[in-house]
Amino acid sequence: MSAAHAKILIDEAIEAHGGSGYWDSLDALEISHSAEGFLFVTKHRRKLDHVRARLSTREPRLTFYDFPEHGQQAELLGEQEVRIRDRQGRILDRRLQPRLSFRSFRRQLFWDDLDFTYFAGYAMWNYLTMPFLFAREGFLFDMLEPVPGDFESCSRILVTFPPDLPTHCRKQIYYFDHERHLRRLDYTAEVIGGWARAAHICEDYRQFGSLKAPVRRRVLPLFSFKKPLPGPALVAIDIHEIMPVSRLFASGKPER
Description:
single chain, 256 residues, alpha+beta, outer membrane lipoprotein receptor (LolB), chain A, 13-stranded antiparallel β-sheet, 13 strands, globular
């Protein structure tokens, strides 16, 4: 019954964020976003300032434009590859099976452009496709008891990801309010370390076409898996624009 109840709530959340019919009509999302935080400092990465990106609504693929340098594109191709291309499309650098490279000690000290492309690419793809992502095959859902505090009125669902999707960790906890809006997700960022537990707070919902999404996201340290610390913000993400791209205009024209 717990799993069945959780699946019903997930279906309600999908409808509350725009509906499965609308999502299925889309080919991509084009976004403009900024990001910074303590993680950027520790990995010696400069903050992102109004960086444009395009992500597929069908599979874990994402492209950052004018990154890491103007005129270049950094691309995530699922778990298989990350690469950087110039404006003519020539591959400047690439890495196969990028997640495996995070086992090396060097990644504890700093991230290069391909490291960052993998982490930021799969993370943003996850964030921007939720909760529609959960309609894919292979996900498992279970209801959890509410927790006291700021999110005690939220329904909590334990989500187990299928092994073929790049994500922070296989088991994550999602908090939905009475409107079925996503308010928080808890996870361990395994490519950083088994200790890297975080609560990802979602705020300021806005409408983009028929899509509803939070535009202010703050990732906070989480030690008890119940109450996050007030700071520092490990990652602070601000979404400035989301432009849904209809399948009818898959060549690149956004829906208005």
